Amino acid sequence: MTETAPLRARAEIDLAALRANVRTLRAHAPGAAFMAVVKADAYGHGMVPCARAAVEAGATWVGTATPEEALALRAAGIRGRLMCWLWTPGGPWREGVEADLDMSVSGLWALREVSAAARAVGRTARIQLKADTGLGRNGCMPADWPELVSQALQAEAEGLVRVTGLWSHFACADEPGHPSIAAQLTLFREMVAAAEERGVRPEVRHIANSPGTLTLPETHFDLVRPGIAMYGISPSPEVGTSQEFGLRPVMRLSASLALVKHAPGGHGVSYGHHYVTPGETTLGLVPVGYGDGIPRHASGTGPVLVGGKLRTVAGRIAMDQFVVDLGGDEPAVGSEAVLFGPGDGGEPTAEDWAQAAGTIAYEIVTRIGSRVPRVYVNERPDE
After folding, report:
1. What are the average pLDDT values for consecutive 10-residue runs of the chain, which has 383 residues?
2. CA–CA separation, 264 vs 215, rounded Å?
3. Which one of the listed residues 39, 130, 275, 362 is annotated catalytic?
4. How far is residue 290 from each of residues 123, 146, 254, 293, 325, measured CA to CA in Å?
5. Which of 43, 130, 231, 271 is catalytic?
């Protein structure tokens, strides 16, 4: 029997929790199809296993940002509808056509490139026209929309493309009552109506992200696109907590203590000595740092559960390690230090780390790097 050495650190990914979250989110939008957004390696959770689990739980679409992500999913055997939206000139349009991707188009340059790829391949490309309804990032401005729609219909008449969707994205859906929500929704309806009056017959119209799915039923249309909520994290504390929405965080991040030692009072800890021991104590070395995605901004504030007690990062978080003041406790070397998880075991949550670092929980989970192995549990679908 082969023994497995303990891991320096691990990000445990509970796929049963992910499947349950998908089912919960689907119940919030029972009349809409469900796109599982797995961009950025599924927000740090692992793109392929999470995509498979989401499909097992009823997701009928999978979404990525980049075409490279979508093509990697196809290579891993993910079938069905797969959309990607962040294209740049010269992108792998031909490969996208051949892989039957739904490809977002926000401008005439993209329509020209995807049409050329479809002509070269001899197949009809599936495209979705994105409207900028107020986010101000990707998407076609209202003034340019009529021409984009006209040219897309011309390409469709030539058999080069099929316009499968019309879509947009909210700027402030995570801020309840923000006036931009109603403004964007009104403009989206107007731009969709204008396209349909010209002859576009989309399969899906969609604008709802995680907060839209959870709190704005009027935004559900034909398809919803939950991202962070699928991983059990609330899109915003102002919207509601994960627990209030019936969602369970999917990632649990832990490390093994690399050293426990006695230190006298007045002893500086880590770079710059921003922490000095207030008295005789014990220090524990946690072998992860900003090289693993632990935010340096949480130096002196990040919470960690060690030996059943909440501790705080003592001093600066370094590239590979940080220290916690154990207050005289002496857990064994190799004991578990839990940085975050669902929270029901007394451990901090990703939201706690976000508060400590002055950021959002999205960033906390997504930035956990490749040096931290993902360990998947509950991989088999529920019976």
Report:
1. 68 98 98 98 98 98 98 98 98 98 98 98 98 98 98 98 98 95 98 98 98 97 98 90 96 98 98 98 98 98 98 98 98 98 97 97 97 95 64
2. 53
3. 39
4. 46, 47, 14, 5, 19
5. 271
Residues in the chain, overall count: 383
Q: How far is residue 312's CA from residue 234's CA, in Å, rounded to a whole number?
A: 24
Whether 290 is a known active-site residue: answer: no
Which residues lie below 8 Å from residue 233, measured CB to CB, with a gap of 6+? Answer: 242, 247, 249, 350, 351, 361, 362, 365
Q: Which two tokens stand for residue 237?
A: 């504390």
* 39 flagged as catalytic: yes
d(CA 375, CA 356): 26
Q: According to the model, what pLDDT value does residue 380 have?
A: 86
Terminal Cα-to-Cα distance of the chain (whole angstroms): 30
Tokens coding 118: 């479809």
